[in-house]
């Protein structure tokens, strides 16, 4: 992992992930979290203040050690048992059927293997467990999609592996989840190439 990923990108992420509208969306999504939670792509800990009292523990997966200086300030006051674990989402250090809730916010765009990642989330969820997701990805408008495809190589380099054209709903459905709710929309005041969002809840059937 290079200096940019460890030093520069966490600084950018800390500011980008706490914009007003994104904060509102996180809060509404995570109000549904309960029980034993696994979160992939913990990043700088932007989700942490939005977990409700129904959460009893959180296993947070974050491969970038450079994020520590941001999340360490926030984890000290967590109102539940919290472990921040190194490693990748494609290989979760958790047992089968051990979690009630899985959370992915603006993370599936950056994992190396989204299908493998979703398979792992399916594995660690209990039957009937829920996946809460807020992701950006492939836009339905042809003009926007063309620009997403043009910009994707540059975006991957500047945004630590972030892809613009992944069909998040399709990937989640293909992993065996049942989509209970799904909203698609462009994030206001955001470039349409980067701001087409997938927000919803899926169940491990």
Present the secondary structure layout.
Elements: H1 3-16, H2 20-30, E1 35-40, E2 55-61, H3 68-75, E3 81-85, E4 99-105, H4 114-124, E5 125-136, H5 142-158, H6 168-174, E6 177-186, E7 196-204
Parallel strand pairs: 1-2, 1-4, 2-3, 4-5
Antiparallel strand pairs: 5-7, 6-7
The chain-level mean pLDDT equals: 92
Specify the oligomeric state. Answer: single chain
Which structural class do you get from the secondary structure elements? Answer: alpha/beta
Along the chain, the helix and strand elements come as HHEEHEEHEHHEE
The strands making up the biggest β-sheet line up spatially as 3-2-1-4-5-7-6
- The tally of beta strands, per DSSP, is 7
Note the total helix count.
6
Globally, the shape reads globular
Structure in words:
The chain is an alpha/beta fold. The protein is built from 6 helices and 7 strands. The chain has a 7-stranded mixed beta sheet with strand order 3-2-1-4-5-7-6. Strand 2 (55-61), helix 3 (68-75) and strand 3 (81-85) form a beta-alpha-beta unit. The longest helix has 17 residues, at 142-158. It is globular, with a radius of gyration of 16 Å. The model has no long low-confidence stretch (mean pLDDT 92).
Brief write-up:
With 205 residues, the protein is an alpha/beta fold. It is built from six helices and seven strands.
Quick tags:
27% strand, 7 strands, 6 helices, globular, alpha/beta, 205 residues
